[in-house]
Design a protein that fits this description.
- The protein has 15 helices and no strands.
- By secondary structure, it is mainly α.
- It has one domain (about 1-404).
- Helix 4 packs parallel to helix 7 and helix 7 (about 185-205) packs antiparallel against helix 8 (about 210-225).
- The relative contact order is 0.16.
Length: about 400
């Protein structure tokens, strides 16, 4: 079957990397951003992000192609294409677990929880809100601007989407498919963020036994509340443990030194290859263990023989959130809606593959623009908002002292 041929993924990745490299040459603002950001402490992870986000695009492209030909929405028959989606998400969860647990271990009780909360809000929502608006407008456009649900029910749908759930909007069947349902992962991310201070109280700050019990109850309550509509799966949450384990691993200089050796790089690639080819699902014990082995080596700074170092790959990593969030909508427009206008049949291989190639290039261009003009300003706005909050608090404290 054509849709199981790994060469499709290889060509798509090459197109994405070439597009990113051309953008770096053509757009000085991108080059300046990379130069300004410099080599981060976890540069290898920055590079890995780019591969993962684009892998989810390839995964959903194959699912879309199969759907167009069969009318069935299901995982690809190829383990490799199935894991490009699932495995990439599992590794994204490991990255989240690693970065924030590392920060907790380094800062301890000095961790700035206010800054953490503000940064997460201004990281997730500036791009998500315009995407959500486009989804709602698209639904009403397809339904001739007719409100089919009651105002109260429609308000509930808006609230649900604001919390990253994906109920059908205005009775439009499977509304979430307009964006390939990608926001399901954000529910897990939000749970991790909200549970982090409680988890820190249990495993890092280590208060009294009563405090520990209350925190565990709080974590369980969060688990139930966030999973109210679509229950959070424990084996999905296990992915974060791989990242948390890596946070402890990189604090051991001898382990880090070994992880940067040639042998470690070979082991990492073998582990990843086995996880992506021998298993059809990512969220079970063996593939998670294999991907955790891969991840701790990358987190220790191994560049996988230079594969994570190029500036084009680093740029793909910078725009990974845009790539992840926007690719489903782009696929829906280009592969499912545009063909109706152009009177072409994307079920045909000779039509679908060029359309997928075009989507790959457009995705990198669009994601670069949204990063520069939505994500980055959003991040900066979060910093300014945090400063405003702190200044307001300082002013209030000063007035209280003066009043005394």
């Amino acid at each position: 079957m054509t849709e199981t041929n790994p060469l499709i993924a290889l060509v798509a990745y090459l197109l994405a990397i070439v597009t990113a490299a051309l953008l770096l040459r053509a757009v000085p603002k991108i080059a300046r951003h990379l130069q300004h950001s410099g080599e981060s402490r976890y540069a290898s992870i920055d590079g890995l992000r780019g591969y993962l986000a684009f892998g989810v695009f390839v995964h959903h492209s194959i699912i879309t192609w199969i759907f167009l030909r069969t009318g069935v929405i299901d995982f690809p028959p190829s383990n490799f294409y199935s894991q490009l989606g699932q495995g990439s998400v599992a590794l994204f969860f490991m990255i989240t677990g690693f970065l924030f647990w590392s920060r907790l271990l380094a800062q301890g009780r000095n961790h700035d929880w206010l800054a953490f909360a503000v940064s997460r809000l201004f990281r997730l929502y500036p791009l998500y809100l315009p995407l959500m608006l486009i989804v709602f407008v698209s639904v009403f456009y397809l339904q001739n601007w007719e409100l089919k649900d009651s105002a109260l029910r429609f308000a509930g749908q808006i609230l649900a989407w604001l919390t990253f759930d994906r109920p059908d909007v205005n009775q439009y069947h499977q509304t979430g498919m307009l964006i390939s349902n990608v926001t399901w992962t954000l529910g897990y991310e939000v749970f991790f963020y909200l549970a982090l201070p409680l988890t820190a109280m249990v495993f890092i700050y280590r208060g009294s036994w009563l405090q520990v019990v209350l925190c565990l109850i709080g974590i369980y309550a969060l688990y139930q509340v966030i999973g109210w509509e679509h229950s959070l799966k424990k084996h999905f949450l296990a992915s974060f443990l791989g990242g948390i384990g890596a946070a402890y691993w990189v604090r051991r200089p001898k382990l880090v030194a070994w992880s940067q050796t040639r042998m470690a790089g070979i082991i990492a690639l073998i582990a990843l290859a086995i996880a992506f080819t021998a298993y059809s699902r990512a969220f079970s014990l063996m593939p998670l263990l294999l991907m955790s082995v891969f991840f701790v080596i990358v987190a220790s700074g191994h560049t996988l023989f230079g594969a994570l170092k190029p500036r084009s790959i680093r740029w793909l990593g910078e725009i990974s959130y845009s790539t992840y969030l926007l690719h489903g909508l782009l696929l829906w427009v280009m592969v499912q809606r545009l063909p109706h206008v152009l009177a072409i049949d994307t079920r045909e291989t000779w039509v679908f593959l060029p359309m997928m190639a075009l989507c790959a290039c457009l995705l990198i261009i669009i994601s670069s623009l949204t990063f520069l003009y939505i994500e980055k300003p959003g991040i900066n706005a979060g910093k300014h908002f945090l400063l405003w909050l702190r200044q307001g608090r300082m002013t209030k404290n000063l007035r209280e002292r003066t009043a005394r």
